[in-house]
Write a structure and sequence with these properties.
By secondary structure, this protein is α+β, with helices and mostly antiparallel strands. It contains five helices and 16 strands. The strands form four sheets. Strands 1, 4, 12, 13, 14 and 15 form a six-stranded mixed sheet that branches. Strands 7-16-11-8-10-9 form a six-stranded mixed sheet, covered by helices on one side.
Length: about 290
């Protein structure tokens, strides 16, 4: 998401995406005389609007912490906290991306962006009840279902049938992904490099990504187990504010608050935006391994 993030600026509802969910013209047959019915004006475009969400990671540094260190190279406290600020921020982004549905101060995650109205009746200010094009494919299995290649192919076909566009990737938890990988294992074949002795080579087993019908499936530690997301990344992006993309404020004195020390902050304003909900799919209640 960060690698192909788009730039956003300030203002009210700074992310506005024009959507065409309905045709704006009509087609009809005409007779030999060339006559046709007068067309009416059909509104087909409406705007989905999203607000940027603010994330701030505070970085404290007490004055005495610096004085009691024997050598900065022994205990690089500021460096350690600055490094951890990035780790904590990215961890929060990933957590919200898979879990946040209702907290409007945080990034609205995949549970709302990829849905048919079951969990999020509205997205981007538009109703999924009134705008069926704004619905994703969602399948809830009645009982825990073992993920197999044939089942993944069925899910890919369900999503592709709606738009004619095949998903770019699948994401699932490690336990769910490992369960799917075991459907591939019995069909593995080992290829030995010609003219190379067996004792000097190694056999590579199993996979880093599972490919079904050209769609790679990846494990993600943040993805809830038992859930599969099929994503088309052409329509799913992060929008990051042009002046608040991991912006560091610098350290300021805390003397005004009656404390000898300094405090800085890492600031990011962003939102994840899905501009074509029906290009994605969510499938849950899949069986997974407890690992």
């Amino acid at each position: 998401m960060l690698s192909h993030a788009q730039v956003a600026t300030g203002g009210l509802s700074p992310i506005t995406v024009p959507l065409q969910g309905n045709p704006m013209v009509t087609i009809q047959n005409m007779g030999y005389d060339g006559s046709f019915n007068q067309p009416g004006v059909t509104p087909g475009i409406q705007n989905a609007e999203f607000n940027l969400k603010g994330y701030l990671t505070a970085i404290p540094f007490l004055g005495l912490e610096g004085l009691v260190q024997l050598d900065y190279s022994v205990v690089p406290l500021i460096e350690a906290r600055m490094n951890d600020a990035t780790n904590v921020t990215l961890d929060r982004f990933s957590t919200d991306m898979y879990n946040n549905l209702t907290n409007t101060q945080s990034m609205i995650g995949l549970p709302a962006a990829i849905d048919d109205g079951t969990f999020a009746a509205n997205y981007g200010g538009l109703s999924r009840t009134n705008n069926t094009f704004w619905k994703s494919t969602y399948v809830h299995n009645g009982a825990p279902t073992t993920p197999t290649r044939n089942l993944m192919l069925q899910y890919i076909s369900q999503v592709t049938k709606v738009t004619g566009e095949i998903p770019k990737m699948g994401l699932m938890g490690f336990g769910t992904w490992t369960n799917l990988a075991q459907d591939f294992t019995p069909n593995e074949r080992y290829v030995v490099t010609p003219n190379q002795p067996f004792g000097e080579g190694k056999v590579e087993a199993l996979f880093r990504a599972l490919d079904v019908a050209g769609v790679p499936f990846y494990p993600d530690p943040y993805c809830p187990e038992g859930t599969l997301y099929l994503l088309n990344t052409d329509y799913l992006s992060l929008y990051v504010h042009e002046r608040a993309s991991f912006y560091f404020t610098g350290f300021e004195s805390t003397l005004a608050n009656g404390q000898f020390g300094y405090i800085g902050a890492l600031l990011t304003l962003l939102e994840m935006v899905d501009v074509k909900c029906k290009a994605h799919g969510k499938f849950d209640n899949l069986a997974f391994l407890n690992i």
